[in-house]
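As the work plan foresaw, the team has encoded backbone shapes as discrete tokens. One protein thus recorded appears below exactly as we store it.

:::
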Amino acid sequence: MLALGLDIGGTKCAAVIGSYEKGECRVLAKEKIPTASFSSPDALLPVLFEKAEQLLSCLSLNRKDLVGVGISCGGPLDPQQGVILSPPNLPGWDHVPIVEKTAARFSLPAFLANDADASALAEWRFGAGKGSRNLVFLTFGTGMGAGLILNGRLYTGANGMAGEIGHIRLRKDGPQGYGKAGSFEGFCSGGGLAGSAVYYTPLLRERGVDSPLMKTKPTAREIAMAAENGDPFARFLMKNCAEKLGEGLAILIDLLNPEKIVIGSIYARNQAFFEEQTLPVLRREALSRSLCACEIVPAALGEAIGDLAALSVIFSKEI
């Protein structure tokens, strides 16, 4: 079974040809283009489609060899109507009928999912969530979103907005994420860590803490590296993030009773630190019976998750 995947992101977009056989998904060919190099979706999409056509030609395939097209993109979007609404990381992508455009170009069925849902499908089918029926996938990258597999099916809610865990407020005040101060995303995301550095600098200076990071606007990666090297400010930021992660996970565990929570990006790169700091909070906050039934693991697909997520959107319709 062969399919085309389109991964649309704020930094780059990719066209991927992949195969599904005997429970495994494999990327056969891929082309990337930088999103910022194009002024609008009307400028970018024809180039992305042409890249996909070139991949087919290089593999000596044609459109009729494909079962369809899977599209993964950051939300908000309307998966039922196949429309990208207005993602904050894609300025100018307002009400783009991506499914209609894709289906017309390739004369194939096309399906759209937000990147958290698509990644949940990928980890469930091909990664750390294989074999589970109730799974939560957390992006924990630039932002914080969740994809939900409930009773063996992707759950998207009434209008595709299920899983926006990053919008939940954990504190009345705090760093801002997803347009809300003190939100889960404000504490637990790449953008949230960077925002936390700015938010907590005055408070920590009053306590006598000093760090080179206080004189810059550090990235999440720089904060994590500094924490590993013993920087007190960075360690505070990471510890605070890990504790808030525990509080957010407890909400998910108590509400959904999943058997597995798969966490990507920042958690996967710093698993030992987060386990040490997050598990005590979970034991305190979550219902013990629900917590005992839930395994928390890092995402297994690594850098391939974007490719496999887009492909999973179409393969999940076929298998």
Notes: The two ends are 10 Å apart (CA to CA).
